[in-house]
Amino acid sequence: MKKIIMLYGLFLVMIGSLLMYQGCSELDTSATIAPDLDTHPDGWAVPTSNNFHGSYIASHKWNLSQCKTCHGGDYSGGSSGTSCLGCHTNNNGPENCRTCHGNSDHSNPPRALNGDTSTTSVGVGMHMFHRFPLYSASVACEECHRDINGFDDPNHIGTDPDGIAEITFGPLAFDTINGPIRPNPTWDRNTATCSNAYCHGTFKEGNVNAVGIWTNQGSVVCGTCHGDPNTGNPTPRTNGVFTPPHYSFMTINSCYVCHGNVINSQGQFVDKDLHVNGEIDFFAR
Ligand code: HEC
Ligand code: HEC
Ligand code: HEC
Ligand code: HEC
Ligand code: HEC
Ligand code: HEC
After folding, report:
1. Are residues 227 and 205 in contact, defined by beta-carbon separation less than 8 angstroms?
2. What per-residue confidence (pLDDT) applies to 167?
3. Using an 8 Å Cβ cutoff, are 110 and 102 in contact?
4. Ligand 2 pocket, mutate which of 92, 99, 106, 117 (most atoms under 8 A from CB)
5. pLDDT average, residue stretch 75-93
6. pLDDT digits (tens, 9 = 90+) for 14-47
7. Which of 187, 203, 185, 172 is nearest to 273 (CA)?
8. Ligand that lies nearest to the alpha carbon of residue 242, given by its number in the listed order
9. CA distances, 34 to each of 66, 70, 79, 263 (Å)
10. Which of 98, 99, 101, 130 to mutate to test the pocket of ligand 4 (most atoms within 8 A of CB)?
11. How far apart are alpha carbons 38 and 30 in whole angstroms?
């Protein structure tokens, strides 16, 4: 009787090790699908860990297709059985713009890709001031970036991303208001400046040499783009020379006489959408 139990036990051990062998070869197969990632390390789901999956993705060219091989094309689990969508609850799950850019309200920085939220950081800069400008309409993303339609848009990350956004100016920065001056808008990342852009002064009677410093809100005031940046008087003058219909005696309280659809006698904008829109608006009312 004892012998039979022993033999039976041996048989069970043999079956058991066969099954274990089978298990290991399955692990090997999955390792060849994703050589980088045979198992997730400890802390993979913990944002403060060095092994956090968000940091891994950021240091591996933001490539999400590798995750899809196990977690499914729609991130709902796939062969892994673990969905991304339980934590990434916005539209399109992890591919939602706000996963990597901005915050729960908007997709433009802040927050930048590196986590920065300060306007002195080049990834953040004056985004919010172009979204909600003091005295013009909101500036569309496409005035400074190529149009990006979805995460997989070829204009977006590409195959070899450097983590630095591309600046490609839209029509407004090239506007000429039918004048002789041809803007040549230029972004210089080293100095964080935008120069030769219509929007910032490159137009007839504008301050054609004005620059906007992306990381310094105070670099653009009334008078920077047209007029006198030192006194803040916006009356247009080219190299200090006034030409009709603009004269040296004019102040911010004179503009309404001819530009009354844009600004009132107190120098307050009555229609911000007409200012820096690429057209000279005058003589209404
Ligand atoms: C080779 C298959 C495979 C690949 C590739 C893969 N995963 Fe997973 N992942 C799994 C499996 C299986 C689980 C569930 C078991 C576990 O938690 O380890 C899982 C679980 C997870 C979890 C939940 C962890 C937890 O503790 O709650 C997260 C988050 C995750 N994966 C993110 C990712 C990301 C991000 C990628 C792409 C960079 C990725 N995975 C690529 C197989 C994979
Ligand atoms: C257990 C919850 C959880 C699961 C499951 C999960 N994530 Fe995340 N993920 C997070 C958290 C938390 C963050 C950090 C959010 C933050 O910093 O605001 C994050 C951040 C990210 C980021 C941002 C990286 C960056 O550079 O900012 C990506 C991309 C991402 N996850 C992809 C995935 C993918 C793909 C899956 C599924 C394969 C997945 N996540 C599953 C919780 C999760
Ligand atoms: C007035 C021009 C302008 C507008 C409008 C603008 N951006 Fe940008 N954006 C920039 C500049 C400049 C940078 C920094 C480029 C660099 O790092 O060289 C940048 C960088 C970025 C980055 C990368 C940030 C990082 O982490 O490095 C993202 C993402 C971005 N912008 C998204 C948007 C979105 C979304 C919108 C529309 C809601 C928008 N931007 C509107 C000028 C603009
Ligand atoms: C997984 C992270 C991630 C998600 C999700 C994401 N982006 Fe990006 N985005 C990046 C990275 C990385 C860059 C910088 C690309 C580079 O190095 O050229 C970038 C750059 C940008 C830029 C700067 C312009 C450019 O061409 O470089 C804009 C605008 C932008 N993203 C918009 C979006 C929009 C809109 C969405 C949602 C549809 C989105 N992003 C979703 C990671 C992400
Ligand atoms: C007497 C009427 C009049 C007053 C007052 C006036 N403008 Fe103008 N403004 C015009 C006209 C007309 C044009 C179009 C000129 C053209 O097409 O060459 C114009 C054009 C402009 C332009 C576009 C650049 C250019 O010169 O073509 C700017 C900027 C401008 N005005 C700002 C102002 C500001 C700021 C004030 C107040 C300080 C002001 N204007 C007061 C009549 C006036
Ligand atoms: C960022 C650059 C910039 C700043 C700062 C700026 N302007 Fe202008 N302004 C323009 C441009 C560009 C035009 C040319 C017409 C257009 O596109 O609206 C203009 C035109 C005008 C006009 C003519 C009416 C019109 O919009 O066509 C008035 C009036 C005016 N600005 C007043 C002001 C006042 C007052 C301030 C300060 C409170 C100011 N601007 C600051 C760029 C600027």
Report:
1. no
2. 97
3. yes
4. 99
5. 97
6. 433 433 333 333 333 333 344 445 579 999 999 9
7. 172
8. 5
9. 7, 9, 13, 61
10. 101
11. 7
Q: Across the chain, what does the average pLDDT equal?
A: 88
- The amino acid occupying position 262 is V
- From residue 217, alpha-carbon distances to 87, 192, 202 in Å are 36, 12, 19
CA dihedral 199, 202, 205, 206 (to 10 degrees): 50
Cβ(86) to ligand 5 under 6 A? no
Decide: 169 and 144 in contact? Cβ < 8 Å: yes
Q: What is the residue whose two structure tokens read 């829109």?
A: 277
Question: Cβ distance 266 to 252 under 8 Å?
Answer: no
Instruction: For residue 9, give both structure tokens.
Output: 């036990």
Cα–ligand 5 centroid distance for 262 (angstroms): 11
223 C-alpha to ligand 3 centroid (Å): 25
Alpha carbons 214 and 121: distance in angstroms, whole number: 9
Q: Is 95 in the pocket of ligand 3 (CB under 6 A)?
A: no
Four-residue CA torsion sign, 205, 208, 210, 211: positive
Spatial separation of the C-alpha atoms in residues 268 and 262, rounded to whole Å: 9
Q: For residue range 246-261, list pLDDT tens digits in order.
A: 999 999 999 999 999 9
Q: Does the CB atom of residue 164 touch ligand 4 within 6 A?
A: yes
Q: Is 172 in the pocket of ligand 6 (CB under 6 A)?
A: no
Token pair for residue 251?
A: 């102040």
- Ligand that comes closest to the CA of residue 247: 5
Question: Does 125 sit in the ligand 3 pocket, CB within 6 Å?
Answer: yes
Contact 130, 139 (CB under 8 A): yes
